[in-house]
C-alpha cells in the first residue's frame, strides 16, 4: 500500500497546501493500493496509528519554510530531514523526522513533498492559499502521480 498524507491547517493560509493536494488527488482515479489521508495538523499522529506491515511507501505533503521562492516545491528523502527535535518541517510541533527515519529503516520508502510558503499568518486566521502556492498544487499532484503510477 502507498499512503499519501496531506498535513496542514486550512485556516492558516499556505499551511493548507497539503489539504489542497489531497483534495485534488481525490478527483483522480488512483490505483487501489493508494490511500489518501487528509491529516490536518495531526500528521504525525495519523502516521503512528495507521502504518502497518502492508505499507510500502509514504508520501508526506506539507507546507515548508526552507527560504525558497514562494510556491517552490522541494522533495526530501528521509536522509535530508533534520536530526533535531524541532525543525522547519515538523508536522506542527510533533517531531516527525525521527519517526519517518525509523519507518525507512524498516524498509518503507518515505518522501516528503514540501511547498515553500509565502503566507503563514499563524496565529491569525486567514484561510486560502497565496497565488504562488495555489499554482504549486498542480506541480505537487504531477510529482505524486509520477511516484505512484
TrEMBL record:
UniProt KW Protease keyword: yes
One Pfam family this sequence matches: HycI
Domain of life, source organism: Archaea
Keywords: Aspartyl protease, Hydrolase, Protease
GO MF, one example: enzyme activator activity
Keyword Hydrolase: yes
Protein family according to the UniProt entry: Belongs to the peptidase A31 family.
Annotated protein name in UniProt: Coenzyme F420-reducing hydrogenase subunit delta
Species in which this protein is naturally found: Methanocaldococcus villosus KIN24-T80
Amino acid at each position: 500500500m502507498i499512503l499519501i498524507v496531506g498535513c496542514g491547517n486550512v485556516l492558516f493560509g499556505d499551511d493548507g497546501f497539503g489539504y489542497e493536494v489531497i483534495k485534488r488527488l481525490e478527483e483522480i482515479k488512483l490505483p487501489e493500493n493508494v490511500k489518501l489521508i487528509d491529516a490536518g495538523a495531526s500528521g504525525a499522529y495519523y502516521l503512528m496509528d495507521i502504518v502497518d506491515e502492508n505499507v510500502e511507501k509514504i508520501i508526506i505533503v506539507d507546507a515548508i519554510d526552507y527560504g525558497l521562492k514562494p510556491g517552490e516545491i522541494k522533495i526530501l528523502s528521509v536522509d535530508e530531514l533534520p536530526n533535531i527535535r524541532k525543525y522547519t518541517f515538523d508536522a506542527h510541533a510533533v517531531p516527525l523526522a525521527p519517526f519517518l527515519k525509523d519507518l525507512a529503516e524498516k524498509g518503507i520508502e518515505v518522501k516528503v513533498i514540501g511547498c515553500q510558503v509565502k503566507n503563514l499568518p499563524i496565529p491569525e486566521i486567514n484561510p486560502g492559499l497565496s497565488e504562488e502556492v495555489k499554482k504549486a498544487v498542480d506541480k505537487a499532484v504531477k510529482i505524486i502521480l509520477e511516484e505512484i503510477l
